[in-house]
Design goal:
The chain is built from eleven helices and 15 strands. It is an alpha/beta fold and about 325 residues long. The chain has a domain of about 210 residues: Rossmann fold, CATH 3.40.50.720. Helix 1 links the parallel strand 1 and strand 2.
Length: about 325
């Protein structure tokens, strides 16, 4: 589909805000629903600075069905992009009920409001965690999901995927695209948008940024004895702007039933390689300490993104060096 009005849940968050920029620049009219649990309202002004457009904003929690329903009764949307959700793996182990209630319950409320108002196009922000431990490093969409998932966060993503499949079976008018992310990094080239989570960050790059800014004394590297080329975990890092463009392409190619795509670079980078890349770009040493590995951390996880290229014509255009440059630019500006 081209143009139209899109509701973006979690649109002030890290990936959501970058996708909002891509949507606006492609000519879509965008409205944002977010409860600001892990984002800041100032993001709206930054989106306006980049695009010249300030999206209409609803401060709504998806757990409150009546509030969600009101958003849909106010406006007729052509599609929904669903990013909203709790996403810290370690926190999900500590607070599983919050994750199930928020991620799964919130999505059910969203779907109910969509059905009630005849909105039947959805792009869902999923995760590579749904693959669990496949016993191989490279993951593709044909693999069975749901087994060996090591945390409640990953299980919520898997369960939501299953719910979406059931919805599509029950109503043939639904057009659903599930996008499985690997490890988003980087920032917008303007230096205005980047990753700045509320509370303690869980992912590598926000921690690196806080060490570089002097907010944390050092980076903890969890394990250096994995069966990888340098002993540290290897992951597939994808620039957030490439990821955002993947959503745009998915929307423009959306069709009936459920389609599932990996969004990754297809290239693995170790934690030590990420540290070196940051030091090379910044010209400064990054203090770190190697500590014991975390339970549930797999040695290597890399996307096979060939299906997205074959069916959507999408592939990454930016690399880890670009991500480091843009991250440092964001750090300097914020």
């Amino acid at each position: 589909m081209k143009n139209g009005k899109i509701l973006v849940t979690g649109g002030t968050g890290y990936i959501g805000s970058h996708t909002v920029v891509e949507l606006i620049e492609a000519g879509y009219e965008v409205e944002i629903l977010d409860n600001l649990y892990n984002s800041k309202i100032e993001v709206l002004d930054k989106i306006e600075k980049i695009t010249g457009v300030k999206p209409k904003f609803y401060k709504v929690d998806l757990k409150n069905y009546d509030d969600v329903l009101k958003v849909f009764t106010d406006t007729k949307y052509d599609a929904v992009m669903h990013f909203a959700g709790l996403k810290a793996v370690a926190e999900s182990v500590e607070k599983p009920l919050e994750y199930y209630e928020n991620n799964i319950g919130g999505t059910v409320n969203l779907l109910k409001a969509m059905v009630k108002n005849g909105v039947k196009r959805l792009i869902f922000s999923s995760s590579a965690t749904v693959y669990g431990d496949q016993g191989v490093a490279k993951l593709d969409e044909s693999m069975e999901t749901g087994k060996g998932i090591t945390n409640p966060y990953g299980r919520t993503k898997y369960m939501i995927e299953e719910i979406l499949k059931d919805v599509a079976v029950s109503d043939k008018e639904f057009e659903i695209c599930i996008l499985r992310y690997f490890n988003p990094i980087g920032a917008h080239a303007s230096g205005l948008l980047g990753e700045d989570p509320n509370g303690d960050p869980n992912n590598l790059m926000p921690v690196v940024m806080r060490v570089a800014a002097g907010r944390i004394p050092k980076l903890l590297v969890y394990g250096d004895d994995y069966p990888t080329r340098d002993g540290s975990c290897v992951r597939d890092y994808i620039h957030v702007v490439d990821l955002a463009k993947g959503h745009l392409v998915a929307l423009e190619n959306i069709s009936g039933g459920v389609k599932i795509y990996n969004l990754g670079s297809g290239v693995g980078t170790s934690v030590f390689e990420m540290i070196k890349a940051f030091e090379k770009e910044s010209g400064e040493k990054l203090p770190f300490e190697v500590v014991g590995g975390r339970s549930g951390d797999l040695a290597e996880l890399i996307a096979d993104p060939s299906l997205a290229y074959k069916e959507l014509g999408w592939k990454t255009e930016l690399n880890t060096a670009d991500a480091m440059r843009d991250t440092l630019n964001y750090l300097k500006n914020n």
